[in-house]
Request: fold
Amino acid sequence: GAANVNGVLQRIKYGNDIFVIDTENPFVTNFSTNLDIVNESVVQQNQNVVGLSFNETVIGESIQFNSNCQTIQSSFIAPVVVGSDVLNLQVNLNDLNEEFQSPTIMITGFKDLAGNDMIVLDTMLLTTMVDTKAPSLIAWNLNTTFFDETNAGGTWMVQAQYDEPMMNDSIPSLLLPISMDLTPLNEQWLDPLNFEWSFVINDNNVNASNLILSATGASDLSGNMQDTMYFMDGIQWEMNPWVEALGCIDTAACNFDVNANTNDGSCIVPLTPCDDGDSLTVNDMIQLDCSCSGEIAQALEEQALNFSIYPNPTTDFLNINGTGRVIIFDVNGRVLFDQWIVGRAAVDVQKWAAGSYTLKANHREFTWIKSSFALK
Reply:
């Protein structure tokens, strides 16, 4: 429609490839994922890939996954910059101890080369199971927690109960303390939640207390392995009936220990020296009633002046005059008489063996003879 000054019209101008019209939003033509089962192992290995095919070349700017499953919602996608119509996204998931079947997924953040935003991909992963929760052993059942020789040759049963169905071909291991001597008999799943071990009990003459059991190795249906679980109540293994128990084993001692079987030198025996804490007494001694007491020194001196024995020698009765404690020993040091007397006392010695005896009273010692024939 233009003309020069001479009125000559221009020739019509046709332009080719001057600009591009692109108002079409890119969209996903094919979607794939290897996330059929997302368990703890998959999360730890970070080998999660989402494949996307677009109808045209796209560039990733701020790619996001939105999902009703927190494991996918919190995932991180490696940046995508290079333009292509076929993309494999590396997805880093988090272990949130979640169980979720068929989560939904929404992908946004891609543009085509003209800057048009992608049509949001909104889909449900029907075949995907998210299970990043490890199974737990929630209960133990033992037919006994105390073992002694009466159990030897018998069967010990241990059952473990889990909080979710477990793989039938995953056999948990029962970790036994080394003190226990058991021969494996059988192990089996009673049902998807309960496993049982059985053992023959052996007598190994070992004693041990507060033993701890633990179990590990079982997997749930998603392949998550249980954490090691412990039976904390404690097991008593008493296969040696004799256990050394230190104490006083002298039945005549004041501190005789009925539970002891080995003397520890602690026996407190009557007539042995002690200290009653009274500075006015002497000859402090453990009494027959197991108390500790002594004799007043001044009284002993007064009593010693009037003390006598007769006849000497004698065959039947030994007469003692005086006041105080009298102890008679034989030649072997055995105490044959121990008594407090006041005035006169007659001691029957008819059944005593003939020989020399020592009488101790109030710091004085007397020697007398038991004769084997009657005196005339």
